[in-house]
Design a protein that fits this description.
The chain is mainly alpha-helical and about 170 residues long. It has two domains: about 1-35, no CATH class; about 45-169, no CATH class. It has nine helices and two strands. The protein has helices spanning about 25-35, 45-50, 55-65, 70-80, 85-90, 110-115, 120-135, 145-150, 160-169, and strands at about 10-15, 15-20. The protein has a two-stranded antiparallel sheet with strand order 1-2. Helix 6 packs across helix 7. The longest helix is centred in the C-terminal third of the chain and has 18 residues, at about 120-135. The protein starts with 9 loop residues before the first strand and ends with a helix. The protein binds zinc ion. Zinc ion (ZN) binds near residues 101, 104, 107 and 120.
């Protein structure tokens, strides 16, 4: 392999040479913007399941607006990327004997079943809605997308409480 013509201070970005020694701050900033973070792969599943392609930024940023604890951010991020270990996943990798739900033992423990569809979890969310009606004087109707994604249009403590609810489950 020939190294003739190779200069470690010149990088190639978007098919254009970028000379780091002569570049100005403005050009560095432009370079950084071209390599900014992309949406996670699993955002496609969120779009397919919930039709939220125009709200993805708000959904991913929501935990950072409503909580300051890193474990809350981390949990919600893992949830949005479907990387929490349900029994369905644990069975596939040999760490569980069944893929059935831990609570009802009747259905597969998928994400949506574990956090919303299970009858035991539904009872929990009913208690949550009743509690919220008492403390906030507001009658909520929580759907699957409210539980999984949160309510991106709200900036009050409700979203924080929903994430804590999921952590409790
Ligand atoms: Zn269940």
């Amino acid at each position: 392999m020939s190294t003739v013509g190779f200069d470690p201070m010149v990088v190639k970005c978007a098919d254009q040479a970028f000379d780091m020694l002569s570049a100005k701050t403005k050009q560095f900033y432009k370079l950084l913007l071209t390599t900014k973070a992309k949406l996670p792969n699993m955002s496609k599943r969120l779009i397919a399941d919930f039709g939220v392609e125009d709200m993805l930024d708000q959904i991913y940023l929501l935990p950072h607006f409503v909580a300051s604890e890193t474990y809350i951010w981390s949990f919600q991020y893992r949830l949005l990327n479907y990387i929490l270990f349900t029994n369905v996943k644990l069975l596939k990798i040999g760490f569980a004997l069944t893929d059935k739900c831990t609570f009802c033992n009747s259905y597969e423990e998928t994400f949506y079943h574990l956090f919303f569809e299970c009858s035991h979890v539904q009872a929990f969310w009913r208690c949550f809605v009743n509690w919220w009606a008492d403390v906030a004087d507001e009658k909520l109707t929580l759907a699957l997308h409210d539980i999984i994604l949160g309510l991106p249009k709200r900036t009050d403590i409700l979203n924080y409480m929903i994430i804590l609810g999921k952590l409790y489950i």
